[in-house]
């Protein structure tokens, strides 16, 4: 008997839809990051309410992810004056070029906009440093010089 005659639908051969993965470790966020997560939850709740039957599962999956991120969020206190931490804007010198980044929570990260997550290797190298300090990075001793912290 042909497979076409015994199958109820094509959906049994489709890829399963998995939950969106959650990064291991604490969900550290800035106050702005928590507000962004809250706005995303509100947006997705509205999308679920107006979603068609076909789109509802995907919208619910996204909503579950953001609800989890919202409930597990830990707002980080501002770092000490002049010390690099989550929420800091840092200007640093690497290989003779001066660059600036802001260290934020994972969901708030946007490298193209100069926002890197605290889990990124560059952020891990910078956190805890102070202006004028040189830190190791990418296997090189004192590769980065901290120019300014705001």
Automatic annotation (TrEMBL):
Residues 1-20 have a biased composition (Basic and acidic residues). Residues 1-25 are annotated as: Disordered. GO terms for biological process: DNA-templated transcription elongation; regulation of DNA-templated transcription elongation. The keyword Kinase applies. InterPro entries: GreA/GreB_C_sf, Tscrpt_elong_fac_GreA/B_C, Tscrpt_elong_fac_GreA/B_fam. It comes from the Bacteria. GO terms for molecular function: DNA binding; kinase activity; RNA polymerase binding. Keywords: Kinase, Transferase. This is Nucleoside-diphosphate kinase. It comes from Sphingomonas glacialis. The lineage of its organism: Bacteria, Pseudomonadati, Pseudomonadota, Alphaproteobacteria, Sphingomonadales.
